[in-house]
UniProtKB/TrEMBL annotation:
<keyword id="KW-0732">Signal</keyword>
<protein>
    <recommendedName>
        <fullName>HAT C-terminal dimerisation domain-containing protein</fullName>
    </recommendedName>
</protein>
<feature type="signal peptide">
    <location>
        <begin position="1"/>
        <end position="26"/>
    </location>
</feature>
Length: 182
């Protein structure tokens, strides 16, 4: 590698490090009063949630995620997500059987169950919201999880093996999952 390429590489690396350091001050681990990870705004991903979003507002929602969509969707597919949402909303308003089927689910419904019967009709819409459901919108939840690990593997418990630590974390997760209302 010649000197000009080395210099460019070093300049870009330094810029990336500065951006990282500058952004780290904005990272805040959010916790509930039970010291659990706090997820303040889960995205609307279930059909009964989507039909409550006006199509013009959904377009704004779509634009907010445009940069992320470019990695997994073609431009044509991205342009068809909004119209699929509009068709879903129209069908919901015009067909009582579709409305009652969609309304039979609540916010605690399983993603797969809520989309049964609809996923073949709106594949791009389902793929888009499925991506939102599986990706954290920010780093605060990850930072929060690191705080939990640091809390569990404190200076007095540094000899914990990874398997022991995993057992502790799974037990905490089990208690949390057991308390969910299904």
């Amino acid at each position: 590698m010649d000197n000009s390429h080395c210099e460019t590489l070093l300049r870009l690396s330094a810029f990336a490090i500065l951006e990282l350091v500058d952004g780290i001050t904005a990272v805040v681990a959010e916790r509930t009063e039970d010291n659990e990870a706090y997820i303040n705004a889960t995205p609307d991903v279930l059909p009964h949630q989507l039909v409550r979003i006006l199509p013009r507002n959904f377009c704004v929602y779509l634009q907010r995620h445009r940069e992320r969509l470019d990695y997994t969707f073609s431009n044509e597919e991205i342009e068809n997500i909004g119209p699929q949402h509009k068709v879903l909303c129209d069908l919901y308003r015009r067909q009582p059987d579709v409305k009652s089927s969609i309304d039979s689910f609540n916010d605690s419904a399983a993603y797969r169950d809520a989309w049964i019967g609809l996923h073949n009709m709106y594949p791009l819409l389902e793929k888009f919201v499925g991506g939102l459901a599986t990706i954290f919108p920010g780093t605060s939840t990850v930072e929060s999880d690191f705080s939990v690990v640091k809390y569990e593997k404190n200076k007095n418990r540094m000899t914990l093996t990874n398997a022991s630590l995993e057992g502790i974390l799974r037990a905490k997760q089990y208690r949390r999952m057991h308390n969910l209302k299904v």
